[in-house]
Amino acid sequence: GGNSLYEDTERRVKDLESTGLRFIGMGVSGGEEGALNGPSLMPGGTKAAYESIEPIVTKIAAQVDDGPCVTYVGPGGAGHYVKMVHNGIEYGDMQLIAEAYDLMKNALGLSHTQLHEVFSEWNMTEELDSFLIEITASIFTKMDDDTRKPLVEVIKDAAGQKGTGRWTVVNALELGVAIPTITAAVNARIMSGLKDERVAASTQLTGPSGTYHGDIKAFVGKIRDALYCSKICSYAQGMALLRKASDEFHYELDLGESARIWKGGCIIRARFLDKIKKAYDENPALANLLLAPEFKQTILDRQNAWREVLSTANQLGIPVPAFSASLDYFDSYRRASLPQNLTQAQRDYFGAHTFQRVDKDGTFHAQWF
Fold this sequence. Notes:
The protein is mainly alpha-helical. It has 3 domains: about 70 residues, NAD(P)-binding Rossmann-like Domain (Rossmann fold), CATH 3.40.50; about 260 residues, Orthogonal Bundle (N-(1-d-carboxylethyl)-l-norvaline Dehydrogenase, domain 2), CATH 1.10.1040; about 30 residues, Single alpha-helices involved in coiled-coils or other helix-helix interfaces (Up-down Bundle), CATH 1.20.5.320. It has 15 helices and 4 strands. It has a two-stranded antiparallel sheet with strand order 1-2. Strands 3-4 form a two-stranded antiparallel ribbon. The longest helix has about 35 residues.
């Protein structure tokens, strides 16, 4: 199945291969459009099993400038693992876009027509040209037959989920990989599901509100910068998780090739993926996507706008959990020192968990009392 849990696929490959049967666990992304025009395919299993279906899947898959959107991903459950992380990144993308929409609608007061124009313009840029931005622009043109209002305005603000985002978050915790943007996106969907509670709470819990007073056009540009910087961080987290899983499960994933097969057919297809592929092609051992020269310079150039957007959102009481998680990830990753020295001191104080020192090698315990 397209969204099978990778651990189930691992078990099926072992069970069936032991009987002499070949088994492919293949992640599939693309939705209805992918079914019609070609999806992105992420097959895992034995190399021999893949080679037996390669002539078929290379024809079925979406076709982009550098080949079909399919490759042999790796052994066992590698294909479904990559699809799981793809979906986690998708959660992050969708939440970041929703937060940009919330700011432009409720802080800047843009109409559905103006929102359509903004997202259409963003979809013409090299950095944000993508399927999700494209359909977002289209959504604002659809009117409800019953009310003659924009359809999006009469859709209940409670987002569903099928579990792949949660799988990604749980696995990242198990492997010790920080993916705060994706985690924030999953949490945002959970919070959205508390509709009745939120409606009741809105009558009792007060906070800042209001609209932005300033150059709206310029601030729209800053929201775009914040969206792109946050998107870079979200993908950096997803690729870091893939690298750790590849090491842990011996998948031998090619991160550049993973980005390439997402360029067409799938939900997160975007021109931006060319840049990710280039980054890993140039440096396969790249520790984090934030350190790739182009992405590093992009964030350094735009971080002031990013910070201003978050500050404004906080002042107006507009939640931006994924924007915030992305900036926190960037700020944490760029700092040589974090306050967990205190955390480790606390652990040693109450539980004798020991600590390491910055000035000498070894493991230490202090007599705190």
